[in-house]
Specification:
Radius of gyration of chain A: 33 Å
Strand order of the largest sheet of chain B: 5-4-3-6-7
Strand content of chain A: under 5%
Strand content of chain B: 15-25%
Structural class of chain A: mainly alpha
CATH topology of the largest domain in chain A: Helicase, Ruva Protein, domain 3
CATH topology of chain B: Glutaredoxin
Largest sheet of chain A: none
Distance between the termini of chain B: 67 Å
Number of strands of chain B: 7
CATH class of the largest domain in chain A: Mainly Alpha
Largest interface: A-B, 15 and 16 residues
Shape of chain A: rod-shaped
Oligomer: heterodimer
Number of helices of chain A: 5
Shape of chain B: elongated
Largest sheet of chain B: 5 strands, mixed
Order of helices and strands of chain A: HHHHH
Helix content of chain A: 55-70%
Number of domains of chain B: 1
Number of domains of chain A: 2
Number of strands of chain A: 0
CATH architecture of the largest domain in chain A: Orthogonal Bundle
CATH architecture of chain B: 3-Layer(aba) Sandwich
CATH superfamily of the largest domain in chain A: Cytochrome C biogenesis protein
CATH superfamily of chain B: Glutaredoxin
Distance between the termini of chain A: 82 Å
Chain lengths: 139, 180
């Protein structure tokens, strides 16, 4: 059990060790890992919290030493903006594709209809208009 | 025709992604990029392993191209690596030890027993310099230029193969530019 001088640090500590990755073990965070380095880093985070560092300062402190690898939630900077923006870009391009396809389909139907209409004889055309424009009588 | 082309879309997608997958095959996911490459060795003030009265600092690492080797008696891989370090030292490579989270008596006994390849060893019992360096497991080896700037880092055993692949050329280049 970890002791804090101020209980408000407990949730912050918990969140930090869950969001920071163990440098030695690939798929574990500091909270889950019992490797020597994780124990050491948890202690160090506790020390930094007691020294009144902000969460951001602590993450920065560790990333400065252990590289961005240690952050499970990557920072947004010029190397990672695409990673963060990609889901939105993909959703946007899918939406645009759907709209374009829909439009093309509608104009295709329109072209097909006017083509058929032009091929009709004048009498048929008149009859068609008549049929289309008379509201059907309820049966 | 257009629809026929669309049938090739999955293949083209694969061709586009394949180079990245292929490159990733060669990458070791355990290898952490060092955050300290190109930076000065972090400042510290720690005692010498053999002489507790002697305080060492980052200034003691400057002046000559050198390796800094992180070691400990509890680290089994370090005992395997030790012969290689002895050989490098006998060839004139300056190696500085960083005795990491260790016991002083055991560490000095280890050096008496296996030979001491180190110009001197920094005694970092608490591991504070280790954290500043971003050490996450011994052994680790850093290549420093004459200004004390970190040029390369290897995590894991330093053997003939890794020396040839990662260090030899960098060391030669730095050492020869230092002479000029």
């Amino acid at each position: 059990m970890v002791e804090f001088s101020d209980d408000s640090m407990r949730p912050r500590y918990q969140k930090l060790i869950e969001e920071l990755r163990c440098p030695k073990c690939q798929n574990q965070n500091l909270a889950d890992s019992n490797s020597a380095i994780s124990v050491e880093l948890r202690l160090q985070i506790l020390r930094l919290l007691e020294q009144k560092n902000s969460d951001e300062e602590i993450k920065h402190y560790l990333a400065e030493r252990y590289s961005d690898f240690i952050l499970y939630r990557p920072l947004v900077d010029q190397r990672t903006w695409f990673l963060w923006a990609a889901p939105f870009l993909f959703a946007l391009s899918a939406a645009i594709a759907v709209i374009l396809l829909q439009r093309r389909r509608q104009s295709d139907i329109g072209e097909y209809d006017s083509g058929r209409r032009a091929a009709m004889s004048a009498g048929d055309r008149e009859r068609l208009d008549q049929l289309l424009n008379t509201p059907s009588e309820p049966r | 025709m257009r629809q026929r082309l669309a049938l090739f879309a999955p293949l083209m997608l694969f061709v586009a992604v394949a180079p990245f997958l292929w490159l990733a095959l060669d990458r070791d996911p355990n290898e952490l990029p060092s955050a300290r490459i190109g930076e000065e060795f972090p400042e510290f003030s720690l005692a010498d392993l053999n002489d507790p009265q002697q305080l060492l600092s980052a200034a003691d690492l400057r002046g000559e191209v050198a390796l800094v080797n992180v070691w400990a008696t509890w680290c089994y891989a370090c005992s395997i690596e030790h012969a290689m370090l002895n050989e490098l030292a006998s060839l004139g490579v300056k190696i500085i030890g960083l005795n990491y989270k260790d016991n002083r008596d055991e560490a000095t006994r280890w050096l008496q027993h296996l030979g001491d390849p180190y110009a001197f060893s920094i005694f970092d019992a608490s591991g504070s310099l280790g954290i500043d360096l971003g050490v996450y497991g011994a052994p680790e080896t850093y290549l420093l230029d004459a200004e004390g700037i970190i040029r390369h880092r290897r995590v894991g055993i330093l053997d003939q193969r890794s020396w040839q692949r990662e260090f030899a050329q960098r060391y030669q280049t730095l050492a020869s530019s230092n002479v000029d």
